[in-house]
Design goal:
5 helices, 19% helix, 8-stranded antiparallel β-sheet
Length: 237
Amino acid sequence: MKPGYRRRIVIDPAPGHVSAELEDDYHRMLVTLTHADGVVTAVTSDMKRNPWTMCPGAMDQLQRTFTGVKLADFARRGEKTQNCTHLHDLSLFAAAHAADSAPVAYDILVTDAVDGVREASLTRNGVPCLAWTLKGEEFLAPADLAGRHMGQLNEVIAQQDKAGAEAMRILRWASLIAHGRTRAMPAGMPATDFPLGSCFNFQTGRAEESFRRPGADIDFSQPGAAPLADRPEFQNT
């Protein structure tokens, strides 16, 4: 197993409700949307593992953000930085797949940098979809992205179909989060050591009271470890 950041997302639709769950080095979180006639009537979430002491308050914020919103309007609702960004993303994934007839699972790997170069890959339901080579935030491969910066990906995403755009957004976000593996984040570390404003936990007035939780991190590069190992839907082998 190559050392690196691993993330798994499982989206599970059913009549009247849809759930989306993720696990990675720093998080295990779940969102369930209950809906009727295209409108969300209830939003529930669970933080099974979260990195900062103030994170759990984001579950109430998520409920306020999306209860009563049309499934079709989730992506336009905004307020991502006022929410836990991971719960927010799971809500968007759940809304986008609410009408599906089967689960979908994404598996992501972003290798640790070797001479500044990282490999980022994504599979959907066990089928390889994306494979990127990055030096810093610049693409070396594939050829159609070579020379672009990660910040220039929006125009490419806009040209994709729904599934392709979702996959690219997921891998882009994972590639950014993977940088966390390069930084020591000991228990008790204050949230104010990070830039403010990026999410619920890092808002001014909240970050000052938030600290890194002990036992929050798992290195899924270790033999036998895998995110959402108890959710075997389409599990890669």
